[in-house]
Specification:
This protein is an all-alpha fold. The chain contains 13 helices and no strands.
Length: about 300
C-alpha cells in the first residue's frame, strides 16, 4: 500500500503540472523557469538534507551492486544507440542516463523507508549518481553545448555545479556528524521541500506542452531504455548483490532501488542543455507507469 501511495502521489503532482499548462498558467517559458529553480536552488538543498541525515559506511557490496547495474545499462544503451541510430553524442548521453539513472532521491527514499524498512539501502545508489555519474555527465553536456573548453573549465564546472557541491556538503556532514546551525538549516530545509514538487510540476507541464508519448519519433529509443531500466538493471543488481553475499533486507533494497523509474532530473538536464528532451520525457513517463508492477514483483520475490 505504501508503494502504491508513493507512485500515486508522484502521478497526481505530475497531473497538476499538466492541468496548470492546460489552463495556461504555465507556458513553455515558465515551465523552463520552474525547472531552473529546481536545478539551481531546490534540488541542491534537498541533497544536503537527504545525504546529511544518513549513515555512510559498511555498504561496499551495496555500492558495487548499484554501480555495476547502473554501468551495465548505461553502456548497453550507449552502444546500441550509436550503432543503430547514429544519434548525436548529447542525445546518446541523455538516453543512457534515462536507461540507468534511478529515482533514488525522491521515490527511492520513500520506498526504502516504507517497503524495505531501512533508508540506508538507497544511499550507495544516491551517492554514485550524485557524486560520480551526474557530475561527469554535466561536464560532458557542458562541453558538447560549448559552455567551456579544457581541463580547467571542466574542473570549474565540477566545483561550481550546485548539485555536486550540495552532495559533497551532505557527505561531509554525514561523515563528520556535524550539524548546520539552525539559521542555515531552516531555510535549506524549507527550500528542499520545493525540489520534488517543482521538478514534477515542470515535468507535468512539459508533458502537456509537448507531443504525447509515441508521437515524437523516439519509440525505439524509449522502448530500449525502458527495458534496460526496468528489466536488465534490477536483474544485474540481483546477480551482483547475490554474488557479493547480500541477502535479506539489504538485497531487497538494492534490487528494488534498481527497479525504480528513471529520475525526473534527467528530463531537467535534457531541458537545460536542449538535447534529448522528447526521449527523456517519454522514458520517464513509461518507466514511472510501468515500474509499479515491477517493484511489487521484486517485493514479493525478495521480501
Amino acid at each position: 500500500m505504501d508503494l502504491l501511495i508513493g507512485f500515486t502521489t508522484i502521478l497526481v503532482v505530475i497531473g497538476c503540472g499538466m492541468g496548470l499548462a492546460h489552463a495556461g498558467v504555465l507556458d513553455a517559458r515558465s515551465q523552463r523557469t520552474l525547472g531552473e529553480i529546481a536545478f539551481f536552488v531546490a534540488s541542491p538543498a534537498l541533497m544536503i538534507v537527504v545525504i546529511s541525515e544518513v549513515e555512510i559506511g559498511g555498504a561496499v557490496a551495496n555500492l558495487a551492486a548499484s554501480a555495476a547495474s547502473l554501468a551495465t545499462c548505461f553502456l548497453l544503451y550507449a552502444a546500441w544507440a550509436r550503432l543503430r541510430h547514429g544519434l548525436d553524442a548529447g542525445a546518446v548521453l541523455i538516453g543512457a542516463l534515462a536507461s540507468s539513472y534511478v529515482n533514488a532521491g525522491n521515490l527511492g527514499i520513500a520506498v526504502a523507508a516504507f517497503v524495505v524498512g531501512d533508508t540506508t539501502v538507497v544511499v550507495p545508489t544516491l551517492l554514485v549518481q550524485m557524486l560520480i555519474v551526474q557530475p561527469a555527465a554535466l561536464i560532458v553536456l557542458d562541453r558538447l553545448t560549448g559552455r567551456g573548453d579544457g581541463v580547467g573549465a571542466a574542473l570549474r564546472r565540477l566545483v561550481t555545479n550546485p548539485l555536486t557541491v550540495a552532495s559533497a556538503i551532505g557527505v561531509l556532514l554525514a561523515v563528520t556528524g556535524w550539524e548546520l546551525p539552525r539559521v542555515l538549516a531552516s531555510p535549506i530545509e524549507l527550500l528542499a521541500g520545493l525540489a520534488i514538487p517543482a521538478m514534477l510540476l515542470s515535468y507535468g507541464a512539459a508533458l502537456r506542452l509537448s507531443p504525447w508519448p509515441g508521437r515524437a519519433g523516439h519509440n525505439g529509443e524509449v522502448l530500449v531504455a525502458a527495458v534496460l531500466k526496468l528489466g536488465v538493471m534490477p536483474v544485474v543488481a540481483w546477480l551482483v548483490g547475490t554474488a557479493l553475499g547480500l541477502d535479506g533486507r539489504v538485497l531487497l533494497g538494492v534490487v528494488i532501488t534498481a527497479a525504480l523509474p528513471t529520475a525526473q532530473n534527467i528530463f531537467l538536464h535534457a531541458t537545460r542543455y536542449r538535447t534529448g528532451e522528447d526521449m527523456a520525457r517519454e522514458t520517464i513517463l513509461v518507466t514511472t507507469l510501468a515500474s509499479l508492477p515491477v517493484a511489487l514483483l521484486v517485493a514479493v520475490l525478495l521480501g
